[in-house]
## 1
Amino acid sequence: MIACLFDLDGVIVDTAKYHFLAWKRLAKEWNFDLTEEQNEHLKGVSRTESLEIILKLAQHTLSKEAFDKALEDKNECFLEFVNQMNENEILEGVTDFLNQLKQNNIPFSLASSSKNAKNILQKIGLFEKFDAIVDGNDIVNGKPHPEIFEKAAKALNTEPKKCVVFEDAVAGVQAGKRAGMKVIGIGEKEVLHEADIVIKNLTEISIQDLKNMIA
Ligand code: B16
Ligand code: MG
């Protein structure tokens, strides 16, 4: 039986813009202006790792205490944006595709690095739809480590070779491939070249395509 594993940010909703604004506000405190291009490197990466990357870019250091405080401040700011989210932020094709999966009895899980994933799903009204949710609170190793997708497959009682992963980040595509799964990249072919196929959004994929990939 086929199963689908969905990343959140960049696949279901575009929370990257809110992560960006929150990191930008924080980095400003050290007179560092984070650019959108630099923000690309933070997609799919954990909160702690993101801060490490930004500090390196800013050539700035923080004590352990200041580091932890910065993580808290960033999340507080991010949550201000999350609290204003609603179902209008669901990306094109998502609702229709999830409904098609339901109609075809294909189970699906969330597999997001975000520790705020459940909260975000509640805000956009999709929490109840998922058969399982694996998020940043459930894993030790972040993407590109395969742990998150292995756990999501287990949560659906299925084998990796029956799973199709939907990912927008390079680290996420790599994690899916390392887990021995088929991966559909959401975004640009040049960037996500390790994926089995790359599409712009979920309007471009059908249940038959999934069946062909897994056959
Ligand atoms: P949080 P995904 C990821 O979500 C984001 O792409 C990444 O930018 C963020 O740092 C990470 O979640 C952690 O988020 O601070 O909310 O725990 O793409 O894996 O759904
Ligand atoms: Mg993502």
Note: Strands lie at 3-6, 108-111, 132-134, 163-167, 182-186, 197-199.
## 2
Amino acid sequence: MSFNSLGLSKPILKAVQEQGYSTPSPIQLQAIPVILERKDILAGAQTGTGKTAGFTLPILELLMQKPIKKESFKVRALVLTPTRELAAQVEQNIENYSKYLPITSAVVFGGVGINPQKAKLKKGVDILVATPGRLLDLVGQKSVDLSSVEFLVLDEADRMLDMGFIHDIKKILAIVPKKKQSLLFSATFSTTIKKLADELLHTPTLIEVAKRNTSAQTIKQTIHFVDDSRKRELLSHLIKKGDWHQVLVFTRTKHGANKLTKQLEIDGISAAAIHGNKSQGARTKALADFKDNTIQVLVATDIAARGIDIDQLPHVINYELPNVPEDYVHRIGRTGRAGNEGEAISLVCIDEHLFLKDIEKLIKKDITKVIIEGFEVDKSIKAKPLSKRGQQRSNGQNRSQKPRGRSGNSNNSNKDRTQRR
Ligand code: AMP
């Protein structure tokens, strides 16, 4: 099956061809015709499946079917994403795909000046990609008019809810017109997502490309049991021995990310950290340096890494296991993208065995365990009580609770949850 038979017009096909895509991915095959029929969709698809083109291409086609003169501040399609990085990435994709069309797009997110965003919106844009907090700021300042929205996309909806954006999303839903086409993408389906879908979508077509809550098949997953105190040594050993480049490493905390980055540098491995305490400029630079191989390792926290799209990222390392099992699925989704083989390695110490159990339960799979010679675990070390380890649980939080929104203050401004981690 080729892109030609999906009902897309020539300028779109030409742009797609220039991206080097020869065949549509499964999500594209399923979603494009349905969206072109003007139906709502509820799609279970992780980043890496080609979902961005899956919703962008048909939206471009439909926007072109009814060309409308651009008006100041009015947008016709609104794409909401949880993080700034994902927003920037999605908008870049839209620009690529609309290269041969008279369609304009813009991206707005927090952490950078609002005035250039206002200036762009004033000219009138067809497609706006936004993180919820900054969008509401712009709405408040009457710098964006959502009354003409024809298409609404919630991208990575599960992550938006995890990050506490539900109130912002509800506010946005109350502003956009009732009559519109809505597309909801989510890697996992909790009851809250289902509730949101019920409220937003009208008789949606369900599309699922990767099984719910299971990890992609093309990813080779391995566990190395190791003592906590020797994790860094093992990580440097693996990177050097395997001559790995472009290694994305996850830590649970921002502090942990900074510390590990420094230690890797001492070991002679070029690294940068990306997390919510870094300025937008530093985050953008770290990502750019990582993409063009200037640095070997990017150390990230979950939120910061969410949605990062790097072609054929070969190695993802969980330096620490996430305490929310769904995050494991999101993390390893950074590798093995668009059909390419990838490898996800987790360094697991004795204190993390319960996290591992939760993860294996979620993905319904026993992950292969490999002990690395010279890094055998010291059996005399006892597990520390879970509540005493790690910033995430230091407030006595139950492990099954999600760490986000843990302040219990659901009314605090959600403007930039990306700052948190
Ligand atoms: P996404 O899931 O939208 O983040 O896309 C993941 C990656 O797959 C991006 O780097 C896209 O450029 C790429 N991609 C999207 N569609 C295709 C396709 N049909 N063939 C090959 N690569 C694709």
Note: The chain has 15 helices and 14 strands.
